[in-house]
Amino acid sequence: MSNNLLLRNAAELVTCRGAAPKTGPAMSELAIIHDGAIWVEDGMIRKVGTTAEVMAELDRTPDQVMDASGRCVLPGFVDPHTHFLFAGHRAEEFSWRLRGDTYMEIMERGGGIVNSVQATRQASPEELFAAGWRRLSSMLSFGVTTVEGKSGYGLDTDTELKQLAVMAKLNREHVVEIVPTFMGAHAVPPEFKGRTDEFVDYLLKNMLPAVAASKLAEFCDIFCEKGVFSVEQSRKLLLEAKRLGLNSKVHADEIVTLGGAELAAEIGALSAEHLLHASDEGIRQMAAAGVIAVLLPATAFCLREPYARARFMIDQGVPVALATDFNPGSCFSESIPLVIALAALYMQMTPAEIVTALTINAAAAVGRADRVGSLEVGKQADFVVLEHPSHLFLPYHAGVNCVDTVVKRGQIVCDKGLT
């Protein structure tokens, strides 16, 4: 293992400089260095600049040199919304949606999230670990170096803790960094069917305290949606989670306009996610409160729903991040290239805004903007090298993985040819 690394001669070094989420016109400011270089020591970035500038300041011979001539280098992508740890699959439900069944109709008749809950409850930690490892490795090949993982396929204390414990083990052993989110309020389990208030009480009195005591989660999320959890139920859970030390995220306004965006602004959630049907007023309140919008275009694509209004949100001053929402039901895809293509073609986002949304803004959406999401001195050396000379190729080479090499903490962890 090399202790230091020099990357030089990058056609574009896209630094995305910053330690906070960007809004409005700032989302287009990528701080690109042409003929760029990075000097890495012990996994951290120590110098960034043109190749001439960085080479002039070196006082030792690098252990490893990467020549990025004709290549674009960007911060490692951050996927700030996934449900990657689950057992079982729901391919049949996808075919039902193709014939016209809605997501909520499938959920109401015992499919959807509850289907995955049954399989995940039965799975051993070893089985979940093996499945999680495979999925993280696939994400890594797309340039993802940090990922948020939500629980929520247990809906009981033991299975939720099992999911979170497996994520903690994966975080220790896999190169992809995992940010854990507790989402016990993902759906109402069969044993509480028709008794949602009682299930919320169970979450408040049993599951949430156990998760908080375990220190296995950083965030708490809830599916605030018609037919799932109301705004009032969501407020109650998230405020108690905050009291116990878990920051808030909200699955908001995905299926109908319910007020989830307004709730996220009211309670000071770090992010509101989905937002396909967020109201104008909710979006304005999010902008005023600094709530990050985590948008999931691949889910809208798979559900054949309208896309979230990224252009309106950016113009209103909301910091926008992008994520895959990889899960077994509504979006069985970890494809960053698909997310990029959909954001460009159907959400009116520019290539620069898309890069910002997958790097510094995505890092901020998982509380990691102080350490990842940009290429600057003092941050982790997490970066990707594209096959192409410019970030403009990301949407242009539509739906194709342009990532050649991935570096995590100064180590090459995925290499398709560049040496």
What does this structure look like?
With 419 residues, the chain is α/β, with parallel strands linked by helices. The protein has two domains: 115 residues, Urease, subunit C, domain 1; 288 residues, TIM Barrel (Alpha-Beta Barrel). Helix content is 37%, strand content 22%. It contains 16 helices and 16 strands. The strands form two sheets. Strands 1, 2, 3, 4, 5, 14, 15 and 16 form an eight-stranded mixed β-sheet that branches. Helix 5 crosses helix 6, helix 7 packs parallel to helix 8 and helix 9 runs parallel beside helix 10. The chain is globular and about 70 Å long. The protein starts with a strand and ends with a strand.
Quick summary:
This protein has helices at residues 51-57, 91-98, 103-108, 113-122, 125-141, 157-173, 196-214, 231-243, 260-267, 280-289, 297-303, 310-315, 336-346, 351-358, 360-365, 393-396; strands at 4-14, 32-41, 44-50, 64-67, 72-75, 77-79, 144-150, 177-185, 219-224, 247-252, 271-274, 292-295, 320-322, 383-386, 403-408, 411-415. With 419 residues, it is of the alpha/beta class. The strands form two sheets. Strands 1, 2, 3, 4, 5, 14, 15 and 16 form an eight-stranded mixed beta sheet that branches.
